[in-house]
Sequence to fold (375 residues):
Amino acid sequence: MASTALDRPVYVTRPVIPPWENLEAALRRVFDSGILTNMGPAHVELEERLEGRLGAGHLSLWNNGTTALLGALSQLDLHDQAIVTPFTFPATVHALSLLGIEPVFADVDPHDLTLSAESVAERLTDRVSAVVGTHVYGNFCDTAAIARLRDERRPDLRIVYDGAHIFGRSGPVFDSAEAIGDVTMLSFHATKLFHTVEGGALVTPEAAQQARFRTARNFGITGEESVEGVGLNGKMSEVHAAVGLAVLDVLDAEIDARAALARQYVERLDAVDGLEVLSGRGPSYQYLTVRVRTEEAWTRDSLRSHLLDHGIVSRKYFHPLCSEMDAYRHLRSAADLPHATAAARECLVLPLYGEMTPDLVDTICDLVDAKRAAA
Ligand SMILES: *Cc1c(COP(=O)(O)O)cnc(C)c1O
Fold:
């Protein structure tokens, strides 16, 4: 068994830190230019380079994913209700609530844990103005089925995706415009595979919509003396954009390093009885997720405690469900979400980041084996 004597805790991820010389050069360019924010040269370059990786769609940078989502939803003429997944980060649902839109929870697909199109269909009434799904562990929602639902039943329905987990896939992010919906939000928070410390983006299939989002990002300002719409301050600073450019330079190396570690994890964990490996086979290496069903002789929570006792900090993404949070548990739709409820009890995200050593992956897998053997 590999040594489990770790000199410091191992967290579920470690932000990608570019070489210091690269960061220094990028930051020097910003401060030497005297332009620190308001869509300066670093911002423009980062938007172009990120858009180049998408495969489809038009991108606007924002100062974080949550503001981006809020800004997007504010421009889509929503009213009354929106159907949303409970198996997501609170920001997805809060963005609706902050705009006075009532969330209606629908269940997730039992396999990939993304918003279930079938469950959406059951809850789709005339009061619903949008569907908001989250792509989970790099798996896309069934975007084709959700688009079909709109085409067949409600042509005016808005389709929005929280894609905080998808940027940093190897290869193009989107294979079609349909995969974007009306808009997809990306998060570039430090814990995401690609990051700008804090940051985010919106991607939309239409250039005209991109222009509206850019206006909303900048107080609704369209000219020196014209403010045409309602907006907020969602701008990404030059400092953050410059860090993003430096991170982007090492992103493919990070993806390759994670892919190799993920292969090692998958090979070992596939052999563990009563453990399912949900992600780690690509194309996204944002998370390495395992699942322990409640019928098993051991539990997700006991595995998490065992790892924690040995200095390994794993995370329950997503737990609790948004529908279990104080702000939302009173909603009628918060009851009866069996697949999401099971996922929140059974899924565990293990450490995965490029700087990890293969020995550390072995140590973690040894701990999983030991816990399983003791069950
Ligand atoms: C990280 C994350 C967010 C929030 O993004 P920020 O950039 O931190 O505002 C929203 N949704 C999901 C699914 C996330 O993982």
